[in-house]
Amino acid sequence: MNVSDGKRWIWLVGIAAVAVLAVLWLKPNDESRIRRAFAAIADMGAKSADENLVAMALKTKSVESFLATPCALSVPRAMLDGAYTPQQLVAACIQAKGLFRTCALSFHDLRIEFPEKDTARVVFTARLTGTLNSGESVNEAQEVEATLVKDGKAKWIFRSLTAVETLKK
Predict the structure, then answer these.
(1) Mean pLDDT over residues 94-100, rounded?
(2) Which of these, 29, 62, 69, 110, has the minimum number of CB atoms within 10 Å of its CB?
(3) Which runs of consecutive H residues, i.e. helices, occur in 51-109?
């Protein structure tokens, strides 16, 4: 083996090592999958002024795939407390979005923990902004605690959502 063959092997091993590290680094892990689920739901929760009822309903219906059956929901100020099917929750979302001319849903400060295998606890701030059909502006924030579980296809779905009560002055 001459010197040029040795250099070639070093280059090949180096390139292979970089490729393996890149694959491991870019491979989606559970935390990134959960963050992507939140981003997808935020997109589904948005409504533009020119969006018709059918388009809005179809987009919102996609949220079903992120909900366990049943999904526990506890939002005392909205008088929601119980276990609901994904279809019931989507119907409520469509009805609520119908009140808005425009709206945007965003999630901030996601704190993700994995208390046990295939279970995640996520505490986050949900923000809803928009304009009601009446012209009134809305800008609401709520801290929420969610429990997500993996379905059979490595997808994270919501098993429960609980509004976290904050102290009022």
Answers:
(1) 93
(2) 29
(3) 53-61, 86-97
